[in-house]
Amino acid sequence: MTTDTGRTGLRVALLGCGVVGSAVAKMLVTNADDLAARIGAPLELVGIAVRRVGKDRSDLPVPEELFTTDAADLVTRADIVIEVIGGIDPARELLLSAMAHGASVVTANKALLADDGPTLYAAADAAGVDLYYEAAVAGAIPILRPMRESLAGDDVHRVLGIVNGTTNFVLDAMDTTGAGFEETVAQAQALGYAEADPSADVEGFDAAAKAALLASLAFHTRVSGGDVFREGITEVTAADIAAAKAMDCVVKLLAIAERTTAADGSAGVSVRVHPAMIPRTHPLASVRDAYNAVFVEAKAAGQLMFYGRGAGGDPTASAVLGDLVAVARHLVAGGRGPGESAYADLPILPIEESVTRYHISLDVDDRPGVLAQVAQAFADTGVSIETVRQHVRTHAGSGAARANLVIVTHGATEGALSATVDALAGCECVAEVVSVMRVEGM
Predict the structure, then answer these.
(1) Which residues of 325-364 are buried (b: 16+ CB within 10 A; e: fewer)?
(2) Model confidence over 10-58: pLDDT tens digits?
């Protein structure tokens, strides 16, 4: 069988040979016959771009002569380029060059897509090639293709996900063991779930890039990483975890993208990443260790959840190879898959207009009239209280009686809730705003 280019096979170039790249290379070689049967043409690995040749890679079933440091040349010699080196540059220039030379692209580069996706989409359209990136969001979990294709006839109105395995491991360990943040991060590093510098994970940058990609697909609107409100888990304490337990909740770092209504009544998109309490009865509460899950709410399909391993060499390579087969089939048949869909062009709403609920813990004076003052602060900002719990204790420093008030609000805009917290901090009866955490999924 020949392709529309007149060749009997498809040339594949691989950029990167780290954990994911090595797994991709192994699968390309060991599964070569099955891949050829599924595609309708054989794949020829024409090169693997690495930082340096000569490194011992004897564990890979790949001839040594295929390794090269000349990535710029390699991308001009392929029908399909797989990019797993990560980062913005030189990945962007290499992929743009590949597409300009007629190659389709499969990438796992969430940071690049969230930073400059429109440039890549435009280049793919101009060249008439595919740009696929299933592995960029949730590892082995098939989520992008179902949203882009299976749900193409439906209206998605909310996506709620755990899309970072490191933070999920840390928060799950804090919940199950009662340990603190730093201790559980160290444990994650020892087990290989966290990098030596875990900032991209624990500060929410990784999840924010993925949230941008999910929102772009779900709402047919261009969303960049900079559009995403981001708050990491570094301020989550053992006390926060305990407070969640008292409500029969768990704390998760959530990526939330939803179609909502702006202050002027028009439609808009809200995209945010932050820790939140969710009920233990919610499907996402059962996502443990370093696993990921994405919960999708659509008008006709209802609630759907996609669950699995969100990182690691083999799981991510599985998603990469899935994209490779899809792109290769298009080349064999003489077509291409769906490109960017940004026709809706909805405005990205500021975090202040997002609607959520708050769990607020206050240390207050234990005397008559305090509850009335606290309630007035909520009334003044238009936020309704759902529940109040009080625990009286003696303040260690002065011996004075203090009460701990735990308040859970009804849904309100983030701006109103933030104003309420500021008002509470200014109340003379409030000794301290101990903690504030959002509540989702109830």
Answers:
(1) bbbbebbbeeebbeebebeeebebbebeebebbbbbbbbb
(2) 999 999 999 999 999 999 999 999 999 999 999 999 999 999 998 889 8
Catalytic (active-site) positions: 210
Q: What is the CA radius of gyration of the chain?
A: 25
Q: CA separation (Å) from 351 to 173, 234, 237?
A: 29, 20, 23
Verify cis geometry, omega within 30 degrees of 0, for the bond prior to 315.
no
Cα-based distances in Å from 237 to 184, 405, 408: 11, 18, 18
Instruction: Quickly count: other Cβ atoms within 10 Å of residue 195's Cβ.
Output: 13
User: Measured at the alpha carbon of residue 256, what is the angle toward residues 245 and 181, in degrees to the nearest 5?
Assistant: 45
Nearest to 139 by CA among 190, 84, 100, 215: 84
pTM (2 d.p.): 0.92
Helix (H, G, I), strand (E, B) or coil at 364: strand
Core vs surface per residue 116-154: b (16+ CB within 10 A) or e: ebeebbebbeebebbbbbbbbbbbbbebbbbbbeebeee
Is there a contact between 325 and 130 (Cβ–Cβ < 8 Å)? Answer: no
- Ramachandran angles phi, psi of 243, nearest 5°: -65, -40
Among 431, 426, 377, 428, residue whose Cα is nearest residue 404: 431
